[in-house]
Structure formats: structure tokens, C-alpha cells
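Hi everyone,

Forwarding the result from last night's run.
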Amino acid sequence: MRKFLIVFVISVLIVGGSTITAYAADCAKDTLVDHFGDWFGNLGKSESSKKKHIAIRKANRLAACAETKAKSAGKAV
């Protein structure tokens, strides 16, 4: 039980720290979670289809990030 508790606390700290850095990161940079999501979302597709879907997903992430930054800037004003 003690080992499980130690592993659980460490994993919570790691996951909690990674979410903070993900939100503080630049919009144009892809995180490890983004790369994994792109890989998993394009599993089994052709190469041209993969490139197209990755470009679409990246554009959607950039748009969402720009929208949240615009909202936070609007709140700050």
C-alpha cells in the first residue's frame, strides 16, 4: 500500500506540472501530448492523408490557442 501511495503522489505531481507548462507554452510549439494525439489520430492512414490531417489539427490548435489568448487579453483590459 505504501509503494502504491508513493507512486500515486509522484504521478500526480508529474501530471500536474505538465499541465501548467502546457498552458504556459507558446502556441506555435507542439507538446508531447499533441504529437501523441496526432500519431494516434492518424494511425493506419496513408502518408498524404496523415500530412493533411496533421496540418488541420495544428491549425485548429493554433486557432484555439489564439482565441483563448484573445479572451484573456480582453479580460485584462
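The radius of gyration is 17 Å.

Cheers,
N.
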